[in-house]
């Protein structure tokens, strides 16, 4: 299932603004609220719907990342919502963590809002499983304090972009093409 507009609006938990209601927005809102209220993330550390753009054969491709956790403008962790078996999104999420601008980021969470996997974006290893796998904000700050960001070598980045495209462009973009797309951002 792809994300589609529901034709209405809802109030964004983080900004308080009215936003388009989509098939996945309710889940994004639940994840943001959970991170703030249960795991101690300051609202200002979270940014929603950040595009991760990359090139394939000269064409720009973008995948929207649901939530990004920042500290002093540095991305520390991506949070990606998935519909379906959470474990089946591990490789796509690791690729996103490696390619994300200002990164690679140290960690990626994939969740359907009931289950979650905490992934090391560099090694690709699953570090923990279950909603309680999500680190508290103060813990995330501690475990990323000495993280060194080393940009990917160009050849390796190109390979990861191709893998990521397979998940985000090719596989998601072929089932029903235009009928699954959201309206353009305003």
What features would you highlight for this structure?
single chain; 186 residues; alpha+beta; tt1808, chain A; 6-stranded mixed β-sheet; two-stranded antiparallel sheet; 4 helices; 8 strands; disordered C terminus
Oligomer state equals single chain
Specify the biggest β-sheet: 6 strands, mixed
- Rg, Cα atoms, Å: 16 Å
Quote the CATH topology.
Answer: tt1808, chain A
How would you characterize this protein structure?
It is a single chain. Helices cover 27% and strands 31% of the residues. It is of the alpha+beta class. It has a single domain (46-176), classed as Alpha-Beta Complex (tt1808, chain A). Helix 2 crosses helix 4 (154-173). The longest helix has 20 residues, at 154-173. It is globular, with a radius of gyration of 16 Å. The two termini are 24 Å apart.
Q: How would you summarize this macromolecular structure in one to three sentences?
A:
This protein is 27% helix and 31% strand. It is an alpha+beta fold. It has a six-stranded mixed sheet with strand order 3-4-5-6-7-8, sandwiched between helices. Strands 1-2 form a two-stranded antiparallel ribbon.
Q: How is the secondary structure organized here?
A:
Blueprint: E1 5-11, E2 18-22, H1 25-37, E3 46-56, E4 59-71, E5 74-81, H2 90-99, E6 107-111, E7 116-120, E8 126-129, H3 137-143, H4 154-173
Helix pairs in contact: 2-4
């Amino acid at each position: 299932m792809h994300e589609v507009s529901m034709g209405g609006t809802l109030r964004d938990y983080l900004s308080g603004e009215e936003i388009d209601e989509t098939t996945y927005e309710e889940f994004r809102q639940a994840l943001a609220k959970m991170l703030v209220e249960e795991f101690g993330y300051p609202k200002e550390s979270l940014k929603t719907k950040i595009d991760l753009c990359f090139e394939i054969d000269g064409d720009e491709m973008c995948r929207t990342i649901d939530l990004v956790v920042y500290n002093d403008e540095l991305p520390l962790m991506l949070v990606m919502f998935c519909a379906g078996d959470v474990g089946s999104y591990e490789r796509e999420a690791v690729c996103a963590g490696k390619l994300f601008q200002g990164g690679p980021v140290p960690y990626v969470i994939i969740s359907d809002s009931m289950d979650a996997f905490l992934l090391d974006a560099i090694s690709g290893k699953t570090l923990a499983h279950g909603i309680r796998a999500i680190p508290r904000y103060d813990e995330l700050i501690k475990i990323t304090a000495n993280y060194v960001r080393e940009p990917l070598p160009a050849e390796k980045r190109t390979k990861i972009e191709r893998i990521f495209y397979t998940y985000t462009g090719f596989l998601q973009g072929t089932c029903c093409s235009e009928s699954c797309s959201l309206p353009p951002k305003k």
